[in-house]
Amino acid sequence: MTQASIRHAITTRRFTAQLPVAEYIARFRRADYFLSLCRECQNFGRRYGCPPFDYDVVERMQHYSTATIIGVQIVPEEKNLPLSIAQELMAPVIRDLMEELLEEEKRTSGLSFGIAGGCTLCGDIPCARITDEPCRHPDRVRPSLESYGFDLAKTSEELFNAPILWSRNEYIPNYLMLICSIFN
To answer: Which pTM was predicted?
Structure first.
């Protein structure tokens, strides 16, 4: 059991799958569809972890042979928690996952992908991309798999047999699912 906050206990379940990068691209990437969704987001072109990127993402991925996909299921012990606290429950898990990914990336010269939802490294300060300044945290900001066009619902269901649950009301579903990766 992990204590997400003083008020809400969670348990986590970790999943890992490895497959060739070329296979992951072929089976799980739907770039046009997911880029169209990114274009609808207020962060599109306004955060360094978000598209459009100033490089060819396919070319960048092709330098790696193995994709290690990591999923973490976060299960709140209480039911009917308000959706408004989802970020509070996920934040410590995201922080730990990102530290792990960045360490592995350094150790192996890999390429890591963070959690969707936009970079929060600058806190309340707007991203420097808005004013065309360099990123304040280039050593830590990472794109998400979605920003490269990957279908995480399909990834979670097929690789982990754990479908992503979506809230249909104002409550957190039975679990939240985080997915990230490192390519080596």
So the answer is: 0.91
Amino acid at 136: R
Helix (H) or strand (E) holding 66: strand 66-76
Are the C-beta atoms of residues 162 and 177 closer than 8 Å to each other?
yes
Cα–chain center distance at 22: 20
Residues 98-118 have pLDDT tens digits of 999 999 999 999 999 998 877
User: What is the pLDDT, as a whole number, of residue 96?
Assistant: 94
- Characterize the bridge pairing of strands 111-113 and 66-76: unpaired
Classified as helix, coil or strand, 148 is helix
Classify 75 in phi/psi space as left (phi over 0), alpha (psi -120 to 50) or beta. Answer: beta
User: How far from the centroid of its chain's Cα atoms is residue 65's Cα?
Assistant: 20
Sign of CA dihedral 94, 117, 88, 76: negative
Please report the pLDDT score of residue 1 as a whole number: 44
Mean pLDDT value across the chain: 92
